[in-house]
Amino acid sequence: MKMLDNLFDGKVDVKTDSRYQDDYISLTQNAIGMKTADVYFLSLIIGYRNGMSVPAQDSKGKEFRPSYFTSLQKNLLYGFILNLPDVNIEDMTDGGQIMRIFAECTSYSNGGIEWLRANVFSDQLSESGSINADAEVIIERLNQMIHDQLNPEVAPF
Question: How far apart are CA 157 and CA 155, in angstroms?
Fold first, then answer.
């Protein structure tokens, strides 16, 4: 009997685009309390919600195992992934398809970081264009963004 893969079993590493490595570093400062998987999840939802998808140029940035997602994040990701037009439920148990699914998710995550750069941190960017702000500024701006974007009539994705 063939063993089925799983999106979150940890056999696959999610690797981010190196263009966004400094953004991940800024957004995972200790005082903020977010880990790489949290930033990836947040930026994926922001990218999808705003219709921004930026395909990865490489996979040499931050990496993490999908098992690092919280159970709530995993449940929301299942819903998100099943809403992608080119994914069916069987794809989530096929190792090759899982890599493709995470590549598509990474494109939306990249788009979310681009959106954050342009709409939340446009005055807090480094010379290279990455988010470069103190933890207090990041926390304040992310909270304000969530408040401003929150609409109980709109699903998060």
Answer: 5
